[in-house]
Each structure stands twice: as C-alpha cells, then as structure tokens.
Amino acid sequence: MAALPRMMELPELDALVRRALVRAGMAEAHAGHVARGIVACERDGARSHGLLRLPGFVHSLQIGWADGRAEPVCTCETESQLRFDARNGFAQVVLAQARARLVEKARRNGVATLLSGNSHHFAALWPDIEDFAAEGLVAFACVNSKKRMAAWGGGRPVLGTNAMAFAAPRPDGPPLVWDQSSSVLSQGDVLLAAKEGREVAPGIGCDAQGRPTTSPEAILGGGALLPFAGPKGASLAVMVEVLAAALTGGPFGFEDRSPAGGATTSLGGQFLLVVDPGVGGSDFAGRMQALTAALLEAGAERMPGDRRYAARRRALAEGVALDVGPLEMLITLAGG
Q: Which of 30, 33, 49, 121 is catalytic?
C-alpha cells in the first residue's frame, strides 16, 4: 500500500524551503523572497512550479551558477522607471527591494516599469504580481528563459518558454490572475510528467532530430517544446525576449551558458509593468464588473485564478499534502 501524504502547515513548509535555500548558499535575507513563490505554488496546487523546482534552485546555488548573496543595484531611476542589475542574483530579490518605489511611482504617474537584468527566475510569475492587484493595481510581468522552444517552422530550441503573467483587481471577487508560458505546455509540466513516468500529449514537443514525440525525456534531453498556436505563441516569446532581455540587458534565451548536468535556473531578465487605474478617473471597477459578468453569462465556468484560490482556501485550513518523494527531498535539502 502506498504511503499516505503528510499534511504540512504552511509555516513549516516555508521554514524548510528557506532552510534548504540558505543551506545551499543563499543569504537569509534573500531566501524568504524566493521561498515565498515556491510555497505559494504548493499552497495553490500549482505543483509544476512548487517543490518540483527547489532542487534546481539548490543546484544552481551549490555550483555557483546563481549568486544567492548578490545585492541588486539600481542603475537608473526616472519618474516612471526603475532599472536594476541583479548581478547574477534573483529577480524576486530585485522586486522585493524595488516594490515600494515601484508602487509609489505608479500611484503618482499612473504607470511604472521595473526592468531587472542579469537575474535568475525559476518559479511561477503570478506570485510576483498578484499582490499588486490586491492593492487595486493592474500588473503585467514576463521573464525570458534559456532556450527550450522552437520558433515558427523550426525543429530545435532557440527561444525560452518565456512566461508572462497578468493581474487585475475585481470589485466583486479576488483579483483576476493568469500565468502562462509561450509553449503549449510549460517546461515545469513536462518535468512533472517525466517525474511521474507518463507521456505528454501529442503536439507538445519534438526530439533532438526535430521529430514529434510524446516522451518528456526526449523533449527535455535535447529536444524542444513547441509554441502554443504555432507562430502566435512564438511571436509572444519573441516579444518577451525583447522586453525581458533586450530592454534589461540580460542574456537572450539562445545565449544561455548554463552548465550541463542537473536542473538549473535560467539567467535572463524580467519586465514588470504596473498601472494605477485610479489615475485619470475612469470607472475601472465598473468596467471590470461588466466584463466578469459578460464572461460568466457567455458560459465561462470560472475566472482565471479561481482554481488556485479554492486550493489556497483548503491549504490554509488543512495544510498542504506532501507525497513521500517530495517530502523526503525537502527534508534532505533542508538538512534533516
């Protein structure tokens, strides 16, 4: 009989994730910012970006690919923009340092952008922006990543899966939040399929020879993920390369120099846009209410983010269920 999952309270989970990161070489002051996203994904049922990603963070720190002690430096500040060099550190640390100033600029000018270059990001994007929407702001973020995805007509990786996320406040419910990759399936979901020993659906990726495959190992082992909707998804990935790499000065996905062997974080950049809908006097709340009502009336069963909110409520009440494998991995990385 398979062992039953262990229920773990969120504070304990957070403490163990932080301990694992610090033990691998991350500064204690930074570990909480990175752990927050990992724990949030486990809490909200987004397992492909939760504890599954922790070994990649740890490995990157242990081999020196990422600098968990780097202090980001603000290289440019204007009325509506903050530009940071993460210095081979983590985008979450940049955001934590810049957040208060970013919000103040958005409140004063109506819009503000944060450009983070030479930064690592190996987690979901929605934890970076959901809180902005909870404060009444609209936010968009994107990160580029190491080359894992083919472009239009191609059969080898040249672009990252280049995730993007959007969050907006709603007057009649929690924020509307979506987070998606540019590929048909995120790399995290392919990793999860490989870990669970199952194939992925046709049309997800190709092998190293450019042939279609349903094997996650073939896709991850020299193959490529495919963009969603063909050239449309690839075009969005190129947009992310421009916003997150060309604008920030971070490496493009095809310039990846990450070491072989073991999962590693992606070194690239992050673009984050924050808009205050209250500047200018529009009836934003009313318009959002009308949009939500129209979507539901047209047959939408839920709003983006609703499944995560339901999982969050359960986790806050009961804790998070951890299977034996992830639990043992977490305890080992945290040092027992």
A: 49
Interatomic CA distance for residues 18 and 266, integer angstroms:
20
Q: Which of 33, 48, 120, 128 is catalytic?
A: 48
1 by Cβ neighbours in 10 Å (0-12 / 13-18 / 19+) ranks as exposed
Whether 274 has a pLDDT exceeding 80, the answer reads: yes
AA identity, residue 269: G
Q: Is 282 considered catalytic here? A: no
CATH fold of 72-183+227-302: Ribosomal Protein S8; Chain: A, domain 1 (3.30.1370)
CA distances from 205 to 138, 166, 183, 220, 253 (A): 33, 26, 9, 9, 17
Q: Is 276 a catalytic residue?
A: no
49 catalytic residue (yes or no): yes
Q: Which residues pair with 76 in a beta bridge?
A: 83
Task: Quote the pLDDT of residue 2.
Answer: 59
Residues 256-283 have a mean pLDDT of 91
